[in-house]
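Support request, please re-run this one:
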Amino acid sequence: MNSELEIFSSFDELTYQLNSQSFSKIICLVDTNTQEFCLPNINLSFDGIITIPAGELSKSFDIVSQVISELIDFECDRNTLLVNLGGGVISDLGGFVASIYKRGINFINIPTSLLGMIDAAFGGKTGIDFNEIKNVIGVFNLAKKVIVCPLFLETLPKVQIENGLGEVLKYAFIRDMGLLEHLNADNILTSDWESIIKKCVEIKREIVSIDPLDTGIRNILNAGHTLGHAFESLKMKDSKSLLHGFAVAMGIKVEAFIALEMGVLAAKDFEKVDSTLNQFFPLLDFNGFTAESVSKYILQDKKVSDRLVKIPLLHNLGSDCVIKHVSYNQIVKALQHFNIN
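Re-run finished. Output below.
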C-alpha cells in the first residue's frame, strides 16, 4: 500500500485541500526554517502550531517529548490530524509522534525540501536517531496523504537542492538513468524539478507497493545509505553536520567501488557512476574519517550478521541492484581506496 499522493501547482490549491479535511483539530508541525519560509504560504488557521529546531539533531527523544507535550496542551484527541510541513526530519519525527500519540493519530506530509518530495515523505518509514545511530528507533506507518507542491523549492537555498540531488542520483543509478536528462549541471536550480519529482516518486511507490516492510526488494532504495549513514552519523557524533544527500553520494561512491571489486558492477558502469558523482558533487570530502570508525559503525547496522553486512550494490546501471553480503575487510579496502585509512 502507498499513501495517497496529490501534486499541486499553487499554494491556494494546497490550502483548499487542507481546508477540506474533517478532523476535530488540525495541528501543524514545522521547524524554525519552515515556520519562517513555508508556513506563511498556507492560508489556514491551524488549531495549533508546534515548532522544533531545524536540523537532524531534532530527531531525538527530547523533541518527541516536546511535541507530545504540546499536543496534550492543545487537548488533541485521537481524531486530530497532524500536518508535517517540512523536510525529511519533520516527516520522520512527525510521523513517529503521530504513530505513538494516543496509540496513533492521522498525519499528512507536506514536504518542503527536494529530499522530502522525492523520498523521505513517502513509504511509511518514521523514526528518530539514538546515540548518534540514524533511524534506529521507529515504526512503519503510512501518512494519510502526501501533498507535494514544487513551489516550495523556491524557498530553499542552493545547498538544500544539492542535498536532494544525492537521492535523485540514487534513483537514476538503480532504476532510470533518463533522470539525468532532466538535470541541468550548469545551473542545478533550473532543472526540470516537476518531472524529476514525479519520476522519483513513481519509482519509490512501485517498489514500496511490492515490499512495504523493507524485507526484500525495497532494500535497493538503500543504495548508498549503508556507508552514507555511517559518514553522516560519525559527523553527528563529533557535533558536526553532513547533509544526508551528500552522505548518500559519498556512500554510493564507496559502494560502487565495492561492487566493482566483487565483480558485480562493470568497469565502464563504475566509471559512469564516478564521473556523474564528480560532476554534480565535485567537493565531496572524505577527510576526518577512519576506516576503523566507519567499519565499526557499520557493524551496528540492523542488516549485519556474523560481521557480514547486506548492502544493495549497483549491478546493471539504471536497471537493478543485487543484495550482497559484504565483509568487514571488503569495506575497509574500499574505504582505503578513497584514502580513508
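The chain has a mean pLDDT of 93. Residues 193-210 form the longest helix (18 residues).
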